[in-house]
Specification:
alpha+beta, disordered C terminus, chromosome, S-adenosylmethionine decarboxylase, 3 domains, nucleus, 4-stranded mixed beta sheet, CENP-NAC/CAD_complex, 41% helix, 21% strand, 6-stranded antiparallel beta sheet, centromere, disordered N terminus
Length: 369
């Protein structure tokens, strides 16, 4: 019995101690690995750079996904990685796949004289210090993307709970622009984030830009006008023939002129070439009902008739442009639709406004709830 006890102690003493990652870090790592396609996993781990070269070479990517992930988790535990390290991996994945959530655009206003000269190091220090003063438990990571934009990952906690790394907020900001793009932000954290951004970027305030979408690139391009726009002109461009020619020359000429005009109107309203890929446009109507026809219950009184109209498509601007150019929708394009590109937003509130003794419907913007 004594000899057996000594052997056990000896084996424990010479055995290798492997530190535990912790439940939060392990669960976050497993969830992140499940999101990353196997074909991109090797490249992503190299960018992460928290596994040694020998460890990366030991990973067999032909194994089943479950065994592959467990082997990677074991290597991370061997290296003693923590939640801070694992959150970097998630951030790398999100930066390479920015179209996985809904992005809302915001506009920084009242810029200081030196707002355009803010550098990344100064922004990091100011943002982290200001946010740490407002909330006790918060985890912040800031990385610069290859395209120059600054990415921020925020795991929120409060005075009594640790940061929740499973539902972080992501913020994207180009330091030389007044635009900020935010994903997965709860209303209770909005004032804290806004105050931190305003102070770190040296602006006076921040407001909702009334523009949102699943594609970060589409939202950013539409807001900044980074797409091929077309402007009104009296000279129509020739339209390439797609249909068989019409035998009568007068009819052919007339149809061609109408098609060229429709195409020009479509380009002027929604852009030319590749245009931003938005999914929705929402209109909240707060107007009095004018239907008549025995529907007095709706038209009676001064109370507005409230309803919401939403246009949805996998590529809304492309669909609207096609409707106009093909003649499905009449020209000229309604300002309610052309304002999506002209004003760079996809949420509107339509209200009644008294104008010289009669009611005129006007378009006003209001923050989205």
């Amino acid at each position: 019995m004594k000899r057996t006890f000594q052997c056990i102690i000896y084996s424990v003493c010479i055995g290798k101690y492997i530190p535990s990652m912790g439940d939060v870090a392990r669960t976050l790592l497993q969830r992140t690995l499940r999101k990353i396609p196997t074909v991109k996993l090797e490249e992503t781990l190299k960018k992460w750079a928290h596994l040694s070269r020998r460890q990366q070479q030991s990973v067999n990517y032909t194994q089943s996904k479950w065994i592959l992930h467990e082997n990677i988790v074991s290597l991370c535990e061997e290296n003693g990685l923590t939640t801070r390290h694992v959150s970097e991996l998630e951030m790398i994945y999100c930066m390479e796949n920015p179209n996985l959530g809904t992005w809302r655009a915001c506009h920084l206003t009242d810029a200081d004289e030196d707002a355009t000269s803010v550098e990344l190091l100064s922004f990091k220090e100011q943002f982290k210090s200001h946010l740490a003063e407002l909330i006790r438990n918060v985890s912040i990571k800031i990385k610069k993307h290859d395209n120059g934009s600054v990415w921020i990952r925020i795991a929120w906690g409060d005075n009594f709970s640790k940061p929740n790394h499973f539902k972080p907020t992501y913020v994207v900001h180009d330091l030389q622009t007044p635009y900020v793009f935010i994903s997965n932000l709860k209303s209770k954290h909005k004032p804290l984030l806004y105050q931190g951004l305003v102070l770190a970027t040296k602006h006076g305030s921040i407001k909702d830009a009334h523009l949102s979408g699943r594609s970060l690139h589409a939202v950013r391009d539409l807001l900044m006008g980074h797409y091929q726009q077309s402007f009104p002109t009296n000279h129509l461009r020739p339209l390439q023939e797609r249909n068989p020619p019409i035998t009568h020359p007068n009819i052919e000429k007339e149809h061609k002129e109408h098609a060229e005009k429709r195409l020009q109107v479509a380009y002027e309203a929604f852009g030319e070439g590749d245009i931003p890929k938005l999914e929705t446009a929402t209109y909240t109507l707060e107007t009095r009902f004018r239907g008549g026809g025995g529907m007095d219950t709706l038209s009676d009184g001064e109370k507005p008739f409230r309803t919401v109209v939403q246009f949805a498509s996998t590529s809304l601007l492309e669909s609207l442009r096609h409707c106009v150019s093909s003649g499905i929708a009449e020209a000229p394009v309604s300002p309610l639709l052309s304002s999506i590109t002209q004003k760079g937003r996809n949420y509107f509130v339509i209200t009644d406004k008294a104008d010289k003794g009669h009611n005129a419907t006007t378009q006003n913007s209001r923050a989205k709830v």
